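User: I've been trying to design a sequence by hand for this structure and keep getting stuck. Would you show me what you'd pick, starting by listing the structure so we're on the same page?

Assistant: Good idea, let's start from the same input. This is the structure you sent:
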């Protein structure tokens, strides 16, 4: 590609819960630490709870910026992370996703629930429609996303999704390997 863009800010989608395995939170912290070591800033949903808080804590501890995009109604003080470098208040969930998409140079989903999946698939769909050209990654922890990735392959095989779009989603279990591959695609 001819674009002159370097990866400096990563938009992360992940669980507002911790999940049942300690490895999920540990992986989120490891991913945030890897981001900070590479000098990457974080854009995310701004919460303190769950894996969202674990990533943000690690990025802040590593000395990088953390930008939280918080919609009205979800801004209950107990949920907003207290160490945000920048807090962006928006009116709606749609506005939040638009700002999160705009401010990052790449998208990464860590383990999470319906909210995470909604955000991941919107970013993938927008890429399919050429509404952005940013790389997309999935951090698979303890094979959490294995059934989802298998289903994506089913969708391609059954003719409902283009293989070239499926291939845009980089799936790795190691944070540094994933970030290196996204940097190569930036
Ligand atoms: P989920 O995977 O269902 O826990 O949803 C997490 C994703 O949805 C995050 O990437 C956020 O952008 C958004 N989200 C869900 N719940 C919250 C919350 N309490 N505070 C901030 N963002 C949230």
């Amino acid at each position: 590609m001819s674009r002159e863009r370097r990866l400096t800010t990563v938009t992360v989608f992940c669980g507002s819960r911790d999940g049942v395995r300690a490895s999920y939170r540990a992986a989120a912290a490891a991913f945030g630490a890897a981001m900070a070591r590479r000098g990457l800033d974080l854009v995310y949903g701004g919460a303190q709870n769950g894996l969202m808080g674990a990533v943000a804590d690690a990025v802040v501890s590593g000395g990088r910026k953390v930008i939280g995009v918080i919609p009205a109604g979800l801004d209950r003080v107990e949920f907003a992370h207290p160490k945000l470098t920048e807090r962006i208040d928006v009116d709606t969930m749609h506005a939040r996703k638009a700002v999160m998409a705009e401010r990052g140079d790449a998208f990464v989903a860590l383990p999470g629930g319906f909210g995470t999946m909604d955000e991941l698939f919107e970013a993938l769909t927008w890429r399919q429609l050429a509404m952005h050209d940013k790389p997309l990654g999935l951090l698979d922890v303890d094979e959490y996303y294995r059934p989802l990735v298998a289903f994506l392959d089913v969708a391609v095989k059954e003719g409902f999704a283009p293989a070239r779009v499926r291939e845009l989603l980089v799936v790795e279990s190691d944070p540094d390997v994933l970030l290196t591959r996204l940097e190569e695609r930036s």
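That's my pick for every position. To get oriented when you compare it with your attempt: The mean pLDDT is 94. Residues 22-37 form the longest helix (16 residues).
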